[in-house]
Amino acid sequence: MSVNTDTTPRCGWATTDPIYIQYHDVDWGTPVHDDRKLFEMLSLEGAQAGLSWITILKRRETYKAAFDDFDARLVAEYDEARITSLLTNPGIIRNQLKVRSVVTNARAYLKVQAEFGTFDAYLWRFVNGEPILNCFATLADIPPKTPVSDAMSKDLKKRGFTFVGSTICYALMQSCGLVNDHVQSCFRYHCDN
Question: Does some domain include residue 107?
Answer without folding.
Answer: yes
